[in-house]
Every structure is written in structure tokens, then in C-alpha cells.
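User: These chains co-purify. Model them together.
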Amino acid sequence: GAVVSQHPSWVICKSGTSVKIECRSLDFQATTMFWYRQFPKQSLMLMATSNEGSKATYEQGVEKDKFLINHASLTLSTLTVTSAHPEDSSFYICSAHWTNTGELFFGEGSRLTVL
Amino acid sequence: DQQVKQNSPSLSVQEGRISILNCDYTNSMFDYFLWYKKYPAEGPTFLISISSIKDKNEDGRFTVFLNKSAKHLSLHIVPSQPGDSAVYFCAASPYNFNKFYFGSGTKLNVKP
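Assistant: Joint model of the two components:
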């Protein structure tokens, strides 16, 4: 089946630094990718919708200047957490929408720990 | 306001029996529904989907049923296996897929 690869799977950084997370669709083109954040014991919260070649659409309450999303190609979207703080520590998950079938495939997730 | 609800936070089933996970939604504009399985510290794994033009979709041991009038869908796993133990999320989106709404998940425990 279709595969979405997310990298890095685990990252630890110092407060104030920026971290980039990549999301790649390996065997299909994804016009739309989604970025989610999971808080402990809660469902996945959609952060933003990333459309290839255009600006991302952010959900209410998500700071677009802090969580920079770039969807430069049909197979790659990146999420950059700028000036990370300990409260940004979380599990970030991307998903890619395969328009041919309408299915949504998820990456393995990236666990960010900000010291 | 949670538009997709999974009212059972947990379910325990004996190996070999049927597991039935339920999901309710409130938005009549939802047109596409999905079930995901998630292990701790991993991303969700897509299981099965169904569009509103169908009332049933089957894939191996997994069958999803959709009752649009009741705004209810369910996932049946037959026979259940210990490896099926995980958290299961249902999700729904409007026809244009621009947003997916997730339920809070049901933790399934399949006992050997």
C-alpha cells in the first residue's frame, strides 16, 4: 500500500532553536498533506492543511509564524517549529491525501522534546 | 463541539470473537469515513474507509458499516487477534476532504 515517510522520528533540541520535520509520500503524489499534533490521551488535533504550491491553511489557535509549513512538491511537505519552547514538546504526525482513491495515509510521527 | 464521537473509551474481547467498535457523528455534511489503528508512539495506520454512497465495505477481517440516517458507523473485526490490540480512531470528512474530524478513540484489548 501507499507509504508516507516522516523524518526525523525523534528529535531533542534546546529551547530557542528551530526544528524541521519532513513528510514524504513515497509512491504517490499528494496534492494535500495534513499536519497533526497529539497531546497525551487526546485525539489528533489538526494543525494545518498543506497544499502543494500554495500557502498552508492553519486551524484556529495555531500560530502560523511559529509552525512554518512548506509544501514545495507533490511528494514533500515540511513543518518547521521555530524558536521551540518546552510547551512545543509533542508528537507531530503528518498525513498525505491520495486523490486517486480518497484515502489518507499517515506518517510514523515525530516526537519532539524541547529542553 | 465534538462532531465525531466514540463513546466507548475501551473494549475488551476474547481472541477469536468479534470486536465491534462504534462511532457517531453529528454533521450531515460528512461524506467520507475512515477507521485508523494506532499503537503507542506510532502514527495511525489506515485500516478501511467508506463513502456515503455505500453502507458496507469489507477488507479481510475488517468490515465497516455506515448508517447515514442514524449518523452511525461501526467497525467489525472478525476474528479478533491479540495483535489487534490498539487504539482505534474513526474519522469523518466532508466530500472535499479538506478537513478530517477524529473521534477520541477506543482502546481495544484482545485477550489470548
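The first strand of chain B starts at residue 4 and ends at 5.
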